[in-house]
Write a structure and sequence with these properties.
The protein is mostly helical. α1 crosses α2. The chain is rod-shaped and about 105 Å long. It starts with a helix and ends with a helix.
């Protein structure tokens, strides 16, 4: 096997590289060729066939087998638009959280919901929220306290634990 490899490897490799995509695939084909030749060495009659032509025949057969195997495999499709449209795990998680939060907010009174909307979703300060809702700042604080407490209770009833 060592003599077979040292004498014919480079010639086989240059032959195979013409027909395959990458150097790794060419090395695989040459390795498979030499392995098949070594296994069938006892079946060949040296006076009828030269070793190099025998190896080229085996290499051609290995390449044909490889091409046929590739034809049996489905061709992967690369559609960037379709991949972008598929929701990722983070998108699904965020959507589910959004539905749970919306359901919990529906359980609050409209006054509490308005304060939560202003403070947490719009990012307004207590003073800005009081001005916008036309209520005193202390009322904004107490409504926020009771709204958060009611939200926690709603989440517990819904089975959401953090």
């Amino acid at each position: 096997m060592t003599a077979l490899y040292t004498e014919h490897h480079d010639v086989l490799l240059s032959f195979v590289r013409r027909y395959v995509r990458g150097p790794e695939q060419a090395e695989d084909v040459v390795q498979e060729t030499l392995l098949r030749a070594w296994r069938g060495l006892t079946r060949t009659e040296p006076r009828h066939v030269t070793m190099r032509s025998y190896l080229f025949t085996i290499a051609r057969n290995v390449l044909t087998d490889s091409w046929r195997a590739e034809q049996r495999r489905p061709e992967p499709l690369y559609d960037d638009e379709a991949l972008a449209a598929v929701p990722s795990a983070d998108d699904v998680e965020a959507a589910l959280e959004g539905h749970v939060i919306a359901a919990a907010l529906e359980r609050l009174s409209s006054e509490h919901r308005d304060v939560i909307q202003a403070l947490y979703f719009e990012g307004l300060t207590v003073a800005e929220s009081a001005s916008r809702l036309t209520i005193p700042e202390g009322t904004v604080k107490s409504r926020a306290y009771y709204a958060v407490r009611n939200l926690r209770a709603a989440f517990e009833e819904m089975g959401v634990l953090r």
